[in-house]
Amino acid sequence: MTNDPNSRDTVPTAIDPFPIRAIKRSVLVVLGPFYFLYIAFVPLLCARRKGFRGWYWRLVKRACSRLLWLLSIRAEMSDADKRALAEDTGSIIVINHRSHLDGFILMDVVPDEKWFTFAAKKELCDSKLLHTGFTGAGLVEIDRNSGKVAMGTLSKAVRDMPTRRSVVLFPEGTRTKGESLGEFKAGAVLVARETGRTIRPIVIHASDRLQPRGKFFPRSGTIRVEALAPFVCDLKASVDEDVARLRAAMMAVFDDG
């Protein structure tokens, strides 16, 4: 057994005493729905204003950070990794996926200088209440009913993005159940090859220790995040070889965790 708070062999160490956690979560339960509605309705009023996307991006990031604070969850990333991400351009971000916390953690820990957005299934954007906000945040809508159409949509969206912005992809496709990384799908590699972008791998350690499957309210604790060096596709190799090389690089960091 290890004392590492991110180890999958230990129960995470809470970062706040129980009374503080209870107060924070009570505030979240009472005020959280109103704050969510505020975030959702703001685009309906401000989406056409000049500079809206940059302002709304920062608003959403701050909302994710506040949510984690109310849940007594801390995200940690080294200063060197933050500097590397702040200067990152021309990339696609790929991260492993272990819990519902992963997107919020990424929004909290990545510096403001690095803009990114998510690819999400089209059904999430069908809600009239959420559509304007998702569009304002630059969310990439993907129709999963057709893999070919989805890849075409994603590749076009990435080509049209400014170089400072990256789309975030989960190469495992869904939350993994095993102790290590799941099998990777080829989407990120295919898009990188088609657009000429590099891949910036990011590894999230043990977020499932704070929120296992089936658990609604996560535990308090610390989640460590690492940004790896840019991954450059080898056009002389096969797509499967690039996928295997990317997974091996991320798995080495995750398993060393």
Automatic annotation (TrEMBL):
This is 1-acyl-sn-glycerol-3-phosphate acyltransferase. One of its GO terms (biological process) is phosphatidic acid biosynthetic process. The lineage of its organism: Bacteria, Pseudomonadati, Pseudomonadota, Alphaproteobacteria, Rhodobacterales. The chain crosses the membrane at residues 27-47. The keyword Transferase applies. It comes from Rhodalgimonas zhirmunskyi. It comes from the Bacteria. Keywords: Acyltransferase, Membrane, Transferase, Transmembrane, Transmembrane helix. GO terms for molecular function: 1-acylglycerol-3-phosphate O-acyltransferase activity. Residues 91-207 form the Phospholipid/glycerol acyltransferase domain. The keyword Transferase applies. Pathway: Lipid metabolism. PANTHER family: 1-ACYL-SN-GLYCEROL-3-PHOSPHATE ACYLTRANSFERASE. InterPro entries: Plipid/glycerol_acylTrfase.
